[in-house]
């Protein structure tokens, strides 16, 4: 029996089978994705304990679903019926921060913001900053190849993972990647693990690259009377050759939801707010901020200014980060994550508006606009099945539109369950076959997060 | 018959079987690596022609070895007996440079410097700059995940590949990756192809990310009376939190060889020259150059200065780029490519000197010192078999030392043939098994560059 094996190999406090507690582990924040019922939740404290869990699953042919904080937005960490649900929440050690090598070695359950804070104490910086950074874990960030606000300049999680320790699909505990600045010793299996959503291995330790702390940022805010105008400003920033350190779009619906929740006194005079930042050092930063301001004006801003007040600037960015949970309070949210070429941002935003109207669906928008990574947030009144169906149609239309414009179905949230069909539309059938071949090669017994990512 | 199929499916001028011409294709620049004799050399002009070649190889179970310019340094592109040798030299189209998306789409045979020049005309920059940039191709750079001089700040080829078109091991022509700034749609198969040295697919088109042209660089040069002092200066730069845009080490042997060849009037008063650059914009660049200078002095420079003369600075960097071909003129070269943690650079350089003495072998040193990526160049008098044997022993000692210091056997040249044994030392047996499983998954018939990379 699986449970007997787990009880034999792990300290008793690692196993959770109280149904009320287990219920808190069955799905991530993709409320619309289906989930099953795990047989047991395990919370290992070491790589060796993770290995024992994987081996027990192998022995019994039991599916294994790994999860971090459960802030995922695509159902990637949702339980499969009868699975072992492995939570990394107790593996929270920051093992090492090496200042001269500029790297950190952490357990997968370390919260993103906690790593950031530990690095800052040493004058170092871990850039990837998903909006979920106060809650999400490095392991989860690695599993989804999480993006974030500063990724427009500094890249995504993948760009910071040097190496990792992994329990493989055959139950071996191995090291992939490296600690050196460069390295091409064999296939990039560490890179392959990043973004594979727990389907190719279970990460037990991650070695990430760090940067020196950067210069303070300059913030530019712009108000626009239409989302399409804001999209034009975004395109103008790209065309001007500016590399902002953030370029975020937040619409009135999001600002209002945050304000209603947190009473931050946010202005909602505008339909859309664009928030740009630059961290170019010294005078170059001042100049870049001025050029960004000119682009906002060129795009048709009704009001735009460089923020002289750091608190005000921080409040605007906090509002951006709180937009998702604020809207979530108002009803079930279906989150989109399409990413389109930068030049296609105005057209894509217009198509999102059209989909909202066509399917009579409320769609709020937040976007990593500088990356072309858009997050239309589709919400429906609780219990309104017809509205739910209309929202799903809008969701599919948005996917189709993004692909038509040369985009991808997921910029940073991952495929999980919500984007499996979309992935099937995006990839050639032969590429799906390559996915299956790689999956079978590294998880020959099919126990790792089965049914996720790869289109059926 | 294979040749009949190729003649049927390709225009006649794509096939080369004149033995004198074929002889020019049998190996790359890793003179010490063995090579076989190809049955035929093919020079396709399109992805469809590449696909026809792969399918012919599949039909006849014939090995296929792909090569770019043949500037590789590990034997990765060396012919296998009876293989089809596919040269990408006629696939040289720069299909597209998109200024607002900051990307380029190129055929694999485009020379690195040609892409760089084409981008510069549009105010854009393709950073990866292997010393072979005037000759090596983007396809070859992708196959080896090539590094270069500016990688210490800007990353390696892998960091710039967004997507690609590939003929798979089953003869399908597919697209991997994306054109958007971000994307996590499925496994990172494009990333897996980068650095796989032609063993997982044949790249027929590459989409690369570009940056805006950067600010002019400031150069700092330092002379050192020992390689260990220079190593200390490198560690000081890292500890000071400086991110140079290049930090290169060249020893007296290299400078003398370049001077003997090109008569550049280079100073060879010093045992070792360190060349640092920074491209931080405006006043920040001036400050960073001054701080780097202080680090050189702290490391024990006998002379150090910021170059006020751009021509002089360019001459020093040209000498760096010419070091390898200059030494190659003097006799067979065995090229090392170990990469160690930055703090271990002084110790590793000392160990290289010790290996040279212990095995009575002439070792010149060039290094991407800021990355800890060292290229000891072992040379022997032509025809001296005993010296050759001693050099091989030194080569193995250097690999062992690098692994002992937490390094990798190859920082940027790839495994090919020269580092297969070293890779076996570096990777766990289980990780080698993962390599074999991935290789079999994507090249089920074993035709793609067999016998390379994966330890036997």
From TrEMBL, chains A, B:
It comes from the Bacteria. Keywords: FAD, Flavoprotein, Oxidoreductase. The keyword Transmembrane helix does not apply. Belongs to the FAD-binding oxidoreductase/transferase type 4 family. One of its GO terms (molecular function) is FAD binding. Its cofactor is FAD. It comes from Prauserella isguenensis. Its EC number is 1.1.3.15. Residues 34-213 form the FAD-binding PCMH-type domain. This is Glycolate oxidase.
């Amino acid at each position: 029996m699986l449970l007997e094996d787990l009880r034999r190999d792990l300290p008793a406090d690692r196993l959770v089978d109280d149904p009320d507690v287990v219920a808190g582990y069955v799905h991530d924040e993709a409320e619309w994705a289906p989930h099953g019922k795990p047989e047991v939740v395990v919370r290992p404290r070491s790589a060796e304990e993770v290995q024992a869990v994987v081996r027990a699953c192998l022995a019994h042919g039991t599916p294994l679903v790994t999860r971090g904080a459960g802030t995922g937005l695509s159902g990637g960490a949702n339980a499969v019926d009868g699975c072992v649900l492995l939570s990394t929440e107790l593996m929270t050690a920051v093992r090492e921060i090496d200042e001269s090598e500029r790297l950190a070695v952490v357990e997968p359950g370390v919260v993103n913001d906690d790593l950031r804070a530990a690095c800052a104490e040493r004058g170092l910086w871990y850039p990837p900053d998903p909006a979920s950074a106060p809650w999400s874990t490095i392991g989860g960030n690695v599993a989804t190849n999480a993006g974030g606000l500063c990724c427009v300049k500094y890249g995504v999680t993948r760009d910071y993972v040097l190496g990792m320790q992994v329990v493989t699909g055959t139950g071996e505990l191995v090291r992939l990647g490296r600690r050196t600045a460069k390295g091409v010793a064999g296939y990039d299996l560490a890179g392959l693990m990043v973004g594979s959503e727990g389907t190719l291995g279970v990460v037990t330790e991650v070695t990430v690259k760090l940067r020196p702390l950067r210069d303070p940022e300059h913030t530019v805010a712009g108000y626009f009377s239409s989302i399409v105008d804001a999209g034009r400003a975004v395109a103008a920033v790209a065309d001007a050759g500016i590399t902002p350190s953030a370029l975020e779009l937040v619409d009135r619906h999001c600002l209002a939801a945050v304000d209603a929740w947190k009473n931050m006194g946010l202005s909602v005079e505008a339909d859309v707010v664009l928030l740009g930042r630059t961290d170019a050092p010294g005078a170059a930063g001042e100049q870049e901020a001025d050029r960004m301001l000119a682009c906002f004006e060129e795009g048709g801003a009704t009001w735009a200014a460089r923020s002289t007040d750091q608190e005000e600037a921080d409040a605007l960015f906090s509002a951006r980060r709180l937009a998702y949970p604020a809207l979530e309070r108002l009803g079930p949210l279906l989150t989109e994550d399409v990413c389109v070429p930068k030049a296609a941002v105005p057209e894509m935003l217009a198509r999102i508006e059209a989909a909202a109207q066509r399917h009579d669906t409320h769609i709020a928008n937040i976007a990593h606009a500088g990356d072309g990574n858009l997050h239309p947030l589709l919400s429906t009144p609780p219990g309104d099945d017809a509205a739910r169906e209309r929202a799903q149609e809008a969701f599919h239309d948005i996917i189709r539109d993004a692909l038509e414009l040369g985009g991808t179905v997921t910029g940073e949230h991952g495929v999980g369950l919500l984007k499996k069909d979309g992935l099937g539309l995006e990839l050639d059938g032969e590429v799906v076959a390559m996915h299956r071949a790689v999956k079978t090669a590294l998880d020959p017994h099919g126990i790792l997060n089965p049914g996720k990512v790869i289109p059926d």
